[in-house]
Amino acid sequence: MRFLPLILKNSLRNRRRSFLTISSLAISLCLLGVLMALYYALFFSEPKADQALRLITRHRVSITMVMPLHYRDKIRAVPGVREVVTWQWFGGMYKNEQREQKYFFPRFGVEAARMFDVYRNFEIPEDQKQAFMSDRRACILSRRVAEAQELKIGDRVYIKGNIFPIDLDLTVKGIYDMDDGNEGLWFHMEQIEEGLKRLGSSRSFAGTFTILAESPEAVPRIQNAVDEMFANSEAPTRTETEQAFGLSFLAFLGNIKLILMSICAAVTFTILLVAANTVAMSVRERVREVGVLKTLGFTQQKILGLLLGESLAISLIGGAIGLLLAQGLCRVLAVGLAGFVPPDQLTIQLPVFLALLGISLLIGVASSAVPAWNAARTPILDALRVTD
Amino acid sequence: MSNEPIIRTSDLHKKFVRDEFEVHALTGANLEVHRGEFIALMGPSGSGKSTLLHLIAAMDRPTAGAIEVLGQDIASLSESAVARWRNHHIGFVFQNFNLIPVLTAHENVELPLKLTHLKKGERHQHALTALKLVGLSDRTDHYPRQLSGGQEQRVAIARAIVTDPDLLLCDEPTGNLDARSAQEVLTLLARLNKEHGKTIVMVTHDPHAAHFASKIRHLDKGELLPEGEVPEDWRAAPMASDDKT
Predict the structure, then answer these.
(1) In this structure, what CATH number is given to the domain that contains residue B215?
(2) Residues of B with CB below 8 A from A309's CB?
(3) Going by fewer Cβ within 10 Å, which terminus of chain A is more open, N or C?
(4) B84 touches chain A (CB under 8 A)
(5) Does B226 have pLDDT greater than 80?
(6) How high is the pLDDT of residue B160?
(7) In chain A, whose CA is at the least distance from the CA of B51?
(8) Half-sphere exposure of B173 toward its Cβ, with a 13 Å CA cutoff?
(9) Stretch B54-76: mean pLDDT
(10) What are the residue ranges spanned by the domains of chain A?
(11) B120 falls in which pLDDT band (50, 70, 90)?
(12) Cα-to-chain-centroid distance, residue A53
């Protein structure tokens, strides 16, 4: 600790260079922090108690393929299943393309009578819930969608179909909040069925089933039982946790794990190069001082410690600023990625914090190890001969 | 003054190898310095005076011969032991001051004390005392760039004496100073020797500076001449010294 003031003063002796180095470290570590937070939230975050009880069953081949509606009753009969609700991605277009591009929100047809039994985390006033369930032309919206589209209870919503050749004419009957950031518009599944019937199709189908298990222990059992039950049918299924189901959308982009890890590795390596270059320059300029310190009685080990300490100070300051920036950026991103990652999960959690701290320390040590070692080993007289 | 020498070199040699050339910087130097002496090592450039000083400070190792400082065979010490030994026993003053630019005068002086077991308050007091001794107690918070050359060298002397070393080694301490500052620094060194009993070995090529010492030894082409003997070419042009003053 007695050398800390000296280390800090030396670290910041060339203010412009220190500022630029710290800035580049901060920005890089901010990016790294956000990516790692995203990675952690996607692949390691614990589901909420409510979410841990839910499973989603879809067509094994693709999420775009549908399953017969009668699967619902068979699934409900599986031991450990408390309830099943059917829902269907509708797609469609609200008002016009420009508006869709600016603020898209998902639209789902759902079995309204059962949805609140399965999705128990909808926060919606009882009168609005009843109003929605009792009116087949009703819909409910998440608060963010309502605010973004400036919709309020009683407003009419027209959705032009694109996946399905039908248009929807709905009335907003409720506005809900949801703790996992689930955004969207929900309407009665019958709207799709009746629309298709009017066009001559009598087929009953479901895009997705959400299963509510009786206990977390029953979840893996149900998962296997459902998929085995339909393994040899016309529409084999894939049952997965709600979390895994959310991630399957991201899989459309490619191997997200690999992409994120590759970017993280590239960012780390780049910071390392930047820091190593700066430290090498800084040490080279001060070899003479190393000779002076040795003359005063500083051992090689002490000088090595001082030089490593300076580099660590820079990387830790950069890392700390990067962490703060990353935390701020996570909060912003959490809003946009709410459909994939629960907003409260996209944050710098303890393992991410520790990993970033470790990377900062690694950068500090790795970038300065060679120049510091060489400088510390330079004989006194050789060091003193170096001119400024 | 004790009769026991605190520096004793016997047949001391130092050879440098530069590419395919061998340079004999010191050839068989025999020197004895007693406690409380102020000795000036004089000689032209390349005579080996700085090499001898560096060997006494254990900043370099002899090629052959023996060197004993304060009863310690310093050539046998390890790198770490020599660094600690230097911190305890040697104060070194450079020609070009070599203060750390990011540290204030007080922090520069306190630096060698950071290697001791003294507490913060004690270090602070010791550094203040040393600065007071060199007449810079009103410049403690000044950075080197805010000081004149003479003041910088006085800070460097304060740094050299702050650990109360047995031996003060000065390598051309007035070489970068104007006449007035040089006079101040030499007066200070003489005072440290007379009033505080510091043993001082000073390398200089300036006869005026050398006259502040109690004894002058000359070196010529790596050879330490016997006491009282002066190199021939110096005899021909004696005391060209005061071009500085």
Answers:
(1) 3.40.50.300
(2) none
(3) N
(4) yes
(5) yes
(6) 95
(7) A381
(8) 37
(9) 92
(10) 4-46+254-385, 66-234
(11) very high
(12) 21
Q: Distance, in angstroms, between A289 CA and closest chain B CA? A: 7
Asked if the Cβ–Cβ distance from B59 to A10 is below 8 Å, we say no
**pLDDT score of A203:** 67
Predicted confidence (pLDDT) per residue in A171-220, tens digit: 999 999 887 667 789 999 888 888 888 887 766 788 899 999 998 889 99
Q: What is the extent of the structural domain holding B43? A: 5-98+166-243
| B94 in any annotated domain | yes
| Closest chain A residue to B86, measured at CA | A297
State whether B120 and A6 contact (CB < 8 Å): no
CA pseudo-torsion sign A118, A120, A124, A129: positive
State ipTM.
0.90
Is residue B127, in this structure, part of any structural domain at all? no
Give the confidence band of A277 by pLDDT, cuts at 50, 70, 90.
confident
What digits encode the pLDDT tens for the residues A126-171? 999 999 999 999 999 999 889 888 899 999 999 998 888 889 999 9
Q: Establish if B180 touches chain A: CB-CB under 8 angstroms.
A: no
Q: Is residue B112 part of a domain?
A: no
Taking the C-alpha atoms of residue B13 and residue B27, their distance in angstroms, rounded to an integer, is 5
DSSP conformation letters of A148-187: HTT--TT-EEEEE-SSSS--EEEEEEEEEEETT----EEE
> Is A198 in CB contact (< 8 Å) with chain B?
no
Q: Are strands B90-93 and B167-171 parallel, antiparallel or unpaired?
A: parallel
Q: How many CA atoms lie within 13 A of A282 on its CB side?
A: 28
Q: Which residues of A77-112 are buried (b: 16+ CB within 10 A; e: fewer)?
A: ebeebebbbbbbbbebbbeeeeeeeeeebbbbbbbb
Of the partner residues B92, B102, B114, the one whose CB lies closest to the CB of residue A295: B92
Number of domains in chain B: 1
Residues from chain A that touch B92, judged by Cβ atoms under 8 A, are 295-296
> Which tokens is B41 given?
């090592």
Asked if residue B136 belongs to a domain, the reply is no
Give Dmax over CA atoms of chain B in angstroms. Answer: 55
